[in-house]
Amino acid sequence: MAAPLSFAGKVVLVTGAGGGLGREYALAFGERGASVVVNDLGGDIKGGGKSSAAADKVVEEIKAKGGKAVANYDSVEDGEKLIQTALDTFGRIDILVNNAGILRDRSFARTGDLDWDLIHRVHLRGSFQVTRAAWNHMKNQKFGRIIMTSSAAGIYGNFGQANYSAAKLGLLGLANTLAIEGKKYNIHCNTIAPTAGSRLTQTVMPSDLLDSLKAEYVAPLVLWLCHEECQENGSLFEVGAGWIGKLRWERTLGKIVRHKNQNMTPEDVRDTWDQICDFTNATKPASIQESLQSMVEVLSKVEDGEGIRANPTSAMASTGSGINPTEAVGKVLPQMTFSYTHMHCILYALGVGMSSKDPDQLKFLYEGHEDFSCLPTFGVIPAQVSMLEGGLSSVPGLSFDPTRLLHGEQYLELYKPLPTSGTLTSKASIADILDKGSGAVILLDVHTYSNQELVCYNQFSVFIVGAGGFGGKRSSDKAVSTVPAPNRAPDAVVVDETSRDQAALYRLSGDWNPLHIDPNFAAMGGFESPILHGLCSFGFAARHVLKQYAGNDVSRFKSIKVRFVKPVLPGQCLQTEMWKEGDRIHLLCKVKETGAVVLSGAYIDLHEAPGASVNAVPAEAGGLQSDLVFAEIGRRIKDLGAELVKKVNGIFGWEITKGGKIAAQWTIDLKTGNGALHKGPYTGKADVTLTVADEDFMEVAMGKLNPQKAFFAGKLKVRGNIMMSQKLEMILKNYAKL
Ligand code: NAI
After folding, report:
1. Beta strand spans in 351-491 (E)
2. What is the pLDDT of residues 436-450, one digit of tens each?
3. Ligand 1 contact via 421 beta carbon (within 6 Å)
């Protein structure tokens, strides 16, 4: 067993040692070899009167046990005198226990000046005076141990003890600073909050408890803290009944309430109150440096536009998530502006695989092109700024680990073609939050404006893994839904290579996530190598459709919706399968090499071809007879397509009129692949376009009206390659049997 703790050679001053706790300390020190100065004014508990008897009695007790002790009868307010007694008698001062105390309990309203002042003079000022008198001696000898005596009343508050609580917690503040200033001189200062039966507590404790809570259960802690072996410094302990516990400060992760360039308001504080006060994953700052460091980090985070959630010194340690739809839904994120030039449009076009090899694509790559255009899917770029700059986690009620965020779905709608340069402003808000059990889905609506004009609308659907189970709803009428592709072979398929540097190129458009470039980062996310951005595949698929069905005419693009399913590795081939259903092009995007689906439930809506809308009525209106014939033509093409393509080798556009207005448009493609029938306006260039009334078309189809005759009679209008119309017979032959 280690040697008992000895205080031989040490000089100890215990204030208020004439009774209670102080007496116990003095006796214990004396027993273990210390020379003890027993100070006590010998007054009553309220600070009245004085007497030497109390101190003398304890000195005698120590001496009777063979110890060394001297009495001092001064008030602690005369600190110098107490220290002088130690110096005069024993030549030094090593250990100081600030223990003297009185009580003047009153309810706060009745606390008078004297009640306040006396308490502060004895406890706080007295401890200050004695300690200051000892300080330089301890400093010079490079050793000192100081105890401050606080109280649970100071730590927690207690009815009727406003004056006492204030002074007692003041002692803790004093000790905290002395611990810092004394450290390099081996002066340690600790604080205790004791509980023991004494004359001070006899009015507030029942007598049997008073007897049980012995002062001798407190003294061992004081002795250990004052021993030269003990390195504890600047700490606070509760002690009593044989139990000792250490206390420290705890701080919530907190919440950054302020946003760059915005006023911080009391409403912001009110709205984030729960997060400010949530002790989940709380931190334990132990120094003013730690505290200040957090503040400085907050300053730079706010400056970076990152309205983040937490106390930054420990934010990384937090994996906890708190999703509160009631608080978050409807919240508006900080407004974002995005300025760009033609360079950004071109960079984006290259990022989604455009190449000058294809002359069709030059209009997206060359600012000097007569029809220089910005790709419609560039519309996600200004909007994503709201998401990427930490805006989501600044929303009250959205506390989550950003590394668990997956981009689930995307919807983009354009209200006009995107300008090729300018400044756009995006306003984002939380449209809804869904609880999917395994995670939470956050729907973020972003409206992007050029000046006051709405240019596009995005809906980001993000999945927070592991953040579900908060008892929320599973679906929302705010969500733009995916739509499955038709259950038939695709109408068109485009295969396109992504380059080895596709992600490296795409990220220059603003999504700098290292997952797409840094192999180590990708490995941490469980990927073999960096992956392509989902929105890059999205851009590829959209331009495939734009070319196939809208002749790269950006004014035809209305909207796109996709669900992100699996990642693509840069260098893999993307295969976009398309189904045309009127103005809607369904699409499915796969990795050609593996067959893995990349985008599903996806579609692009196109605006009608220019001119088609003039006098147009919905195709469904009035139920056209010609629909039946076209349905049959579609079946025939499926059966005999290859043969017909060989014989006809032409594309026929049809405009079916009713009451003088175009009621339906059809395309019979007997030129590409195995042939196809599309309903809706033809987006490319048909070899021949025929305009005919619904009823006349039936006459022709039934064999009752010869096409040539109809032409000369003005019932059939033909544009384009008139000779091609002669091959119509091959298509319409035998429809009389319908
Ligand atoms: P106590 O009343 O038995 O001892 C305090 C001693 O301080 C008395 O002997 C008194 O004469 C002396 N004193 C008062 N004013 C003085 C002055 N101006 N100069 C020199 N000596 C003076 O009380 P107890 O219970 O032993 O208290 C000791 C310390 O512990 C006090 O600071 C008290 O506030 C604190 N404390 C005690 C608790 C308990 O449960 N006993 C609870 C929390 C704190």
Report:
1. 398-399, 405-414, 422-435, 439-450, 453-465
2. 887 899 999 999 999
3. no
Mutation test residue for ligand 1: of 37, 148, 200, 218, the one with most atoms within 8 Å of CB? 200
| Shortest-distance Cα residue to atom 44 of ligand 1 | 151
Helix (H, G, I), strand (E, B) or coil at 717: strand
CATH architecture of the domain 328-606 equals Roll (3.10)
Q: Which of the two residues, 608 and 226, has the higher pLDDT score?
A: 226
Tokens of residue 416, six digits: 């006009």
Which amino acid would we find at residue 665? Q
Name the burial class of residue 537, with classes exposed (0-12), middle (13-18) and buried (19+) by CB atoms within 10 angstroms of its CB: buried
Q: Is 98 in the pocket of ligand 1 (CB under 6 A)?
A: no
Confidence class of residue 617 from pLDDT cuts 50, 70 and 90? very low
* pLDDT at residue 1, as a whole number: 60
CATH class entry, domain 626-737: alpha beta
If one residue of 40, 76, 155, 218 were mutated to test the ligand 1 pocket, choosing by the most ligand atoms within 8 A of its CB, it would be 40
Sequence-distant (6+) residues with CB within 8 A of 327 are 271, 274, 396, 397
How confident is the model at residue 235, as a pLDDT? 98
- Least Cα distance to 491 among 621, 350, 641, 390 occurs for 641
Atom from ligand 1 closest to the CA of residue 77: 18
pLDDT at 629: 79
Q: Is the beta carbon of 196 within 6 A of some atom in ligand 1? A: yes
Measuring from atom 10 of ligand 1, which residue has the nearest CA?
16
The residue whose CA is least distant from atom 23 of ligand 1 is 200
Please tell me if the domain spanning 11-247 has the same topology as the one spanning 626-737: no
Is the Cβ–Cβ distance between 315 and 309 less than 8 Å? yes
79: Cβ below 6 Å to ligand 1? no
The two tokens of residue 74 are 């001064």
User: Which CATH code is given to the segment(s) 248-313?
Assistant: 1.10.287.4290
Give pLDDT, residue 381: 95
**In degrees rounded to 5, what are phi and psi of residue 376?**
-55, -35
Ligand 1 atom having least distance to the Cα of 103: 34
The reported pLDDT for the residue numbered 618 is 40
Q: Is the pLDDT of residue 256 over 60?
A: yes
What's the CA gap between 442 and 423, in Å, rounded?
27
- Report whether residue 154 contacts ligand 1, using a CB cutoff of 6 Å: no
In this structure, CATH architecture of domain 11-247 = 3-Layer(aba) Sandwich (3.40)
pLDDT digits (tens, 9 = 90+) for 332-391: 888 889 999 999 999 999 999 999 998 889 999 999 998 999 999 999 999 998 777 667
Catalytic pick among 25, 164, 340, 457: 164
Portion of the chain with pLDDT greater than 70, in percent:
93
Closest of 82, 77, 111 to residue 96, by C-alpha: 82
Atom of ligand 1 nearest to the CA of 100: 7
657 lines ligand 1 (CB under 6 A): no
What average pLDDT does the structure give for the chain? 88
Q: Where are the domains of the chain?
A: 11-247, 248-313, 328-606, 626-737
Identify the weakest region by mean pLDDT among 71-80, 126-135, 143-152, 298-307: 298-307
In the prediction, which pLDDT does 737 show? Answer: 39
Residue whose CA is at the smallest distance from ligand 1 atom 15: 101
- Catalytic annotation on 25? no
pLDDT at position 615 over 60: no
